[in-house]
Structure formats: C-alpha cells, structure tokens
Amino acid sequence: MPQSSTFGPKDEETIETAMFIGYDWVTAVTYEAGHGWTVIFRSDMEDNILADGYLRSEDLHDEHPIQQGMDAMQAAASEDDE
Q1: Is 33:80 a contact under the CB 8 Å cutoff?
Q2: What's the domain count of the chain?
Q3: Each residue's pLDDT tens digit, 6-59
Q4: Residues 6+ positions from 40 with CB-CB distance below 8 Å
Q5: Which of 14, 27, 41, 49 is exposed most, by the fewest CB atoms within 10 A?
Q6: Rounded to whole angstroms, how far apart are CA atoms 4 and 46?
Q7: Which domain covers residue 23, as residue numbers?
Q8: Which pLDDT does position 4 carry in this prediction?
Q9: Nearest CA-CA partner of 30 in 63, 82, 78
Q10: How far apart are the C-alpha atoms of 71 and 28, rounded to whole Å?
C-alpha cells in the first residue's frame, strides 16, 4: 500500500510511506530524502493477521495491526502536509 505526498515547490522533497504485511507482523515505514527509512509502526502480534490469506477491510478494527499501520502512515502524511 504505498502512499506518497510531495512538498511545495520551495522544499521539493518527497516523502514515501509503505506498509509491509507478513503472516504475523505488520511494519509501516516512511522515507525522507536525505534521511532514509524510519519505522513508524511495528506490530508485536503473534496471531495470524491474514486469517485466510486475504486482506478484507471489513475484518479490520481500531486495534488491528494493519489498521494501526494505516493510521500511522496517514499521520505521517498529515504531518508532512502541514
């Protein structure tokens, strides 16, 4: 689920955010030119995140690691827009 936003012409920097989803983990990262990658969310869940191998949005809830990762990515993008 890559997501990106671009600063105004004065700054000309691009911030990229991405989420990596494994069998029992989720990691969301952001990339800033000149600074590299930073982890903005990491789950410690031991249960199967993708119960049947498919991501279904109706299965997500506020405490779900994928939802928390998406929230972290949205927060990072919102901070960059300010």
Answers
A1: no
A2: 1
A3: 544 555 556 688 888 877 788 899 888 788 889 998 887 666 666 555 555 566
A4: 17, 28, 29, 30, 72, 73, 75, 76
A5: 14
A6: 29
A7: 3-72
A8: 53
A9: 78
A10: 10
Token pair of 9 as six digits: 């012409």
pTM above 0.90, yes or no: no
φ, ψ for residue 63 (rounded to 5)? -90, -5
Residues in the chain: 82
Top-confidence residue, 64 or 69: 69
**Domain-embedded: residue 80:** no
Region for residue 29 given its phi and psi (left: phi exceeds 0; alpha: psi -120 to 50; beta: otherwise)? beta
- Domain assignment of residue 50, yes or no: yes
Q: Quick check: is 41 in a domain?
A: yes
Torsions phi, psi of 68, nearest 5?
Answer: -65, -40
| Residue 31 lies inside a defined structural domain of this protein | yes
Q: Are 76 and 40 in contact (CB under 8 A)?
A: yes
